[in-house]
Amino acid sequence: MSERRIYLDYNATAPLRAVARRAMLEALDRLGNASSVHREGRQARSLLETARADVASHFGVGAANILFVSGATEAANCLLNPALRDGTGGFQRLVIGASEHACVLSGHRFAPEQTQIANVLPDGRIDLADLDRQLAGPGRAMVALQSANNETGVIQPVAEAAQIVHARGGLLVCDAVQSAGRDSVDGAELGADAVFVSSHKLGGPAGVGAIALVKDGLHMADPLLRGGGQESGRRAGTENVAGIVGFAAAFGEAAGARGEAMARLRMARDRLEKNLLAALPELAIFGVGAVRLANTSAFAVPGISAETLLIALDLAGFAVSSGSACSSGKVQASHVLATMGVKPHIATGALRVSLGWNSAGEDVDAFCETFAETIRTIRRRRVTP
Ligand code: PLP
Asked: Of 52, 108, 266, 380, which is the most exposed, with the fewest CB atoms less than 10 Å away?
């Protein structure tokens, strides 16, 4: 008998879409280095450039403005660099939203003393007044602000932030990892000067991502990877053509089905929260005061630890997450919830359910039943001597 598994952790990684698998298998069977001049090389180049044009269309930029990288972490490493150039000189400071992903929070080649943190409000959105205050100091600033939070799904007011940043002469870099395929990542709509995304969050393979250089003339004066002249000298190393082709195919499908898929997932997510609240009125749901991604819910039952719940739910066949996934497999206190002012005894119980292209309504109903039953079992055990 096969064990039933229900995967509700799309914000960590999404299952590979069939279109991506097909495109990758076809590309893997082709021979050729995209830099070679022979026919095989030219064919690999053609696959790569078609994928580049497809990916560029989602950001509303030309193909030449797309740079393929190994994922969002590398993208953040490339962009958060005082040597990024846009014709107006370099950057002396980096201002980061307090709820950013760890790959942005590290600040990369900005020294710790050049890095400032802008507060978030209790509903999870960036405090725009604080952002403006942070920008008021001397020295040109780069600002890193995500489009949506991976733990809570809270959508950031990126376009409003962009106006503030630009009025202060700064540059805005947007981590749009959680919005790609779920919301618009159009550079002009976001108002961002550079945007980056990661393939595996939208049903493409892991190990691929893209940077969209939205602002005209934005230029990486000091590339992270040096060597050959690939990616127009901006990122050396032979391109992962099959991975990039799979990424483009997944992105195309996700973006094309976005409206319908998000309406379906919003209904499922809202039903999940309604059912959980009906069974457990003490449940705290995070970020409800803000607009959230339709697929994400983060919540806690006060006094019940996420670690206990994760293990019990995993044994019952459900893959969910405790806020951000941690590479060590250990549950760590969430800096996102801490910045929102969530008390530690509640934050330590935070779980995240994130739905996606292959989630079914029944998955959510089964989760609600098992979750409520798991809480009852934990509580019974506590009172039984
Ligand atoms: N930014 C956000 C908002 C994320 O959720 C993640 C992954 O969890 C990343 C960046 C890092 O992406 P990658 O693992 O592709 O480097």
From this structure: 380
SS3 (DSSP) at 150: coil
Instruction: Select from 374, 360, 34 the least CA-distant residue to 229.
Output: 34
In this structure, the strands spanning 194-198 and 171-175 are parallel
Pseudo-torsion of CA 292, 180, 296, 97, nearest 10°? -60
- Which atom of ligand 1 is closest in space to residue 11's alpha carbon? 5
174 catalytic, yes or no?
no
Which atom of ligand 1 is closest in space to residue 175's alpha carbon? 1
What's the pTM? 0.96
Q: SS3 string of 318-384?
A: EECECCCCCCCCCCCCCHHHHHCCCCHHHHCCCEEEECCCCCCHHHHHHHHHHHHHHHHHHHHHHHC
Share in percent of the chain as helix, strand, coil (round to 5): 40, 15, 45
Q: Could you tell me the mean pLDDT of each successive run of 10 residues in the chain, 385 residues long?
A: 86 98 97 94 97 98 98 97 90 97 93 96 98 95 98 98 97 98 98 98 98 94 90 93 98 97 98 97 97 98 94 97 61 88 94 97 96 94 70
Query: How many CA within 13 A on the CB side of residue 267?
Result: 9
Q: Is the CB of 322 under 6 A from ligand 1?
A: no
21: exposed, middle or buried (C-beta count within 10 Å: 0-12, 13-18, 19+)?
A: middle
Bridge-partner residues for 213, per DSSP? 194
